[in-house]
Structure prediction request, 223 residues.
Amino acid sequence: MQVVRGKRLVEFEAAALEALVAQHDRVLIDVGTGDARTAYRIAKSAPERLVIGVDPAWRRMEKVSNRAMSKPAKGGLGNLLLINSAVENTPPPLHGLADEVLVQMPWGRLLHGVVTGETEVCAGLRTIAAAGASLDVTVGTSIWRPPVPRDIQGLPELTREYVDERLSQRFAEHGWRVEDAGVVDDVVRSSWSSRLGSSKDERVFGIRAVAVSPVGGAASGDL
Ligand SMILES: C[S@@+](CC[C@H](N)C(=O)[O-])C[C@H]1O[C@@H](n2cnc3c(N)ncnc32)[C@H](O)[C@@H]1O
Prediction:
């Protein structure tokens, strides 16, 4: 498993992760953590939680990684781990670990995967979750307003109806029971949500789900 240490990627043994998990009450995994500022803030405010940020674009985590490695007086934290990985291909030591999974303002493969209920992404999210874990996804809906970016064209818009009629079933096939979906007011602050928040018309759509057994026998990674 490769963790970010400033400008470098360093191998991190499964035993070292186990030891960290044992020292904390809960594990939160922030998938598509970006610059990892949200993961850092959560870790700082809740030292009893082990917070793990996961993103394949690992160089963006450099600054936060440096801060987390510094002395406690300078913002150092012992409960934040930043990992170089895409959700489709997470290292086995992370599997079944998360009590909470966050996906905030995704883009690219992660966005398409959660919006369409695509197998590799949804099963990938389920693979890192413990039974009963929560999943919170937020997406800024302005991406569906003209001019619609090329990458978004053809992507179904997240609405309550779409989630009820189509997406919940796909999520269920991959072991996620959707509990709630709709426009959210209390978005967890992140670099990306702050950027979107500067537009007063931005509406953020949220999906909350719980990790259960897959319904209907879909292929679900290594569940
Ligand atoms: C718009 S940024 C949001 C970053 C952060 N969550 C925030 O709210 O500030 C979307 C992030 O999703 C990540 N991402 C895209 N595809 C991914 C995948 N398959 N697995 C994990 N992360 C992915 C990107 O690398 C990027 O950092």
In short: Helices lie at 14-22, 37-45, 62-69, 108-116, 119-127, 160-173, 191-197. The chain is about 30% helix and 30% strand.
